[in-house]
Amino acid sequence: MAYDDFKKRIRDDWRDTLRGILTRARSLSPRAVLAFDLDSTLFDNRPRQARILREFGAARALAALATCEPRHWVTGWDMKEAMRACGLEDGQIEAHFPEARRFWVERFFTSDYCVDDVAIDGAAAFTHAVVATGAQLAYVTGRHEAMREGSVSCMRRHGLVLPDGQRVHLLMKPTLQEDDDAYKREAHAQLGRLGTVVAAFDNEPTHANDYRRKFPEATVIHLATDHSGRPVELLDGVISVPHFALES
């Protein structure tokens, strides 16, 4: 499904859904568990993406890329589209993309670069609202353990609730090589051991659908931000929201 199609799924009463989740969490605490993805769910990764492309442009004397900004990442994670939005011609994109991709991979999955992320609107306040209900909060991410320090540092900078190993958990892949989809499915068992999953939040349709299947009594929220671009339709019952700000 295209990005604009996901945005069309957002209902006018989406804030009421988020408030309802907090109400249910409060009624079930301390057994209630709410699971949150990080990338493109609580955090906007475009500043990190733009920094990497700027550095590649500077290293290869590509002036158009050396001025890359977050706004150039217009269709999610598609680097070719970002390069085009920065001003490169198609021939230049094809010539430089393989090396740019390698340059990106070497940097994107590191603590040093994930500190550039910024919080999605309302994300920090919503994590505090969750903890205030007495529920447990679990960050369930495809990031690997080597990114823990940078991830927590970014949470701290933007005011999100920090993991404490007791009521707030940060579940990460052991290494970069694990498949994101498989890891998140494995994490379902960990969530179930923590308590009753009340809600799960993710931007990836595949992951949102997996939550919907595994926890049919939970409210599954899809962040209509960006995603990997895989042609996956959201299951019935998954609710799309634009961000977490409860006040318009």
Q: Would you give an account of this structure?
A:
This protein is of the alpha/beta class and 248 residues long. It folds into two domains: 3-44 and 118-241, HAD superfamily/HAD-like (Rossmann fold, 3-Layer(aba) Sandwich); 46-114. The protein has eleven helices and eight strands. The strands form two sheets. It has a six-stranded parallel sheet, sandwiched between helices. Strand 6 (196-202), helix 11 (205-214) and strand 7 (219-223) form a beta-alpha-beta unit. Helix 3 crosses helix 6 (90-108), helix 5 packs across helix 6 and helix 10 (180-194) packs parallel to helix 11.
Which features does this protein show?
6-stranded parallel beta sheet, 248 residues, globular, single chain, 2 domains, 11 helices, two-stranded antiparallel ribbon, alpha/beta, Rossmann fold, 16% strand, 8 strands
